[in-house]
Amino acid sequence: MIKGKPASVEVRLPSRLGYEKVAMSTAAAVAKLMGFKEERVEDLKTAVAEACINAIEHGNLLNEGLSVGVVLSTADDSLEVKVIDDGKGLGKMPTKPDIDRKIHGEEDPRGMGMFLIQALVDEAEWVKGVNGKSSYVRLVIRLDKEDLD
Amino acid sequence: MQTDTKARVDQLTSPAGHPVAVLRFEGDIASTSKEAVLGTYQGLPKQTNKLVLLDFTKVDYINSSGIALVIQMLIEASNSGQKVYAFGLSPHFTKVFTMVGITKYAGLFPGQAEAMAAL
Predict the structure, then answer these.
(1) What average pLDDT does this structure show over A77-81?
(2) Closest Cβ opposite residue A109 in set B1, B71, B78
(3) Mind giving me the DSSP string for B10-67?
(4) Helix-, strand-, coil-residue percentages of chain A, each rounded to 5
(5) Nearest Cβ partner of A112 from B91, B92, B100?
(6) Predicted complex: ipTM over 0.90
């Protein structure tokens, strides 16, 4: 486990599906350096991937001329990840997905991403950018007390 | 960047004597996997393939678009009177499938042997 001053890592992704895996790998590497358990690293990878996919698809509308920024900031007991795009930000939070409604054709089979993000990290907030640009989602995972000495 | 999804079908018989179509996936399960996931499933005659078993042993990345494809398959299976099961998911994706409710419509097993023994 690496301890010391807070650190920041930044990655810039093209708005092309598949590149979310670069952010996943980077987030996983930082989380492992901080001493997160494997289970939490896997949770973070999925949350970061879904945040990047949303930024690529819905924020930047798959415009490859725009990039997605991923900023990872470490603290003593937590890791914050901001995923920034050039969209207007989230209008309203979607309702929690309902598998029964999906199976019965009453709800779109898609639309699991934001639910997964919220379920897998300790904190998630969606922030609208000023002037309808640079909106971001902010994710936080915290180290368990037993991981801290 | 996304790994192509490969899929193949093995026709097996369970210890109880039931025919089981095993769909074996390899690579990522994402938005680009529609043909591999849904296309392969839709290629199975529904009258003779009442038990469908999904093998995720060689899959290490599934995102929400991939989960949506699995749900679309479950919708079709439900409408066709088929039962779907799965094995080989990592502990993380077992948790994710449980969180989104897929386990209500597709039984999960650790491995092929456990799945076949139950079918």
Answers:
(1) 97
(2) B71
(3) EEEE-TTS-EEEEEEEEEEESGGGHIIIIIHHHTS-TTT--EEEEEEEEEEEE-HHHH
(4) 40, 25, 40
(5) B100
(6) yes
Element (H, E) at A14: strand A8-14
d(CA A2, CA A52): 26
A9 contact partners, CB below 8 Å, separation of at least 6: A26, A30, A71, A72
Residue A59 tokens, joined = 């924020």
CB atoms within 10 A of CB A13: 23
Q: Which residues of A touch B1 (CB under 8 A)?
A: 16-19, 21-22
Q: Which amino acid is at A43?
A: D
- As beta bridge partners, residue B59 has B27
pLDDT digits (tens, 9 = 90+) for A128-142: 988 778 899 999 999
Q: What pLDDT, in 10s, does the model give residues B6-26?
A: 999 999 999 999 999 999 999
> Across chain A, how many H-helices and E-strands are there?
4, 5
Question: Encoding tokens for residue A60?
Answer: 């930047």
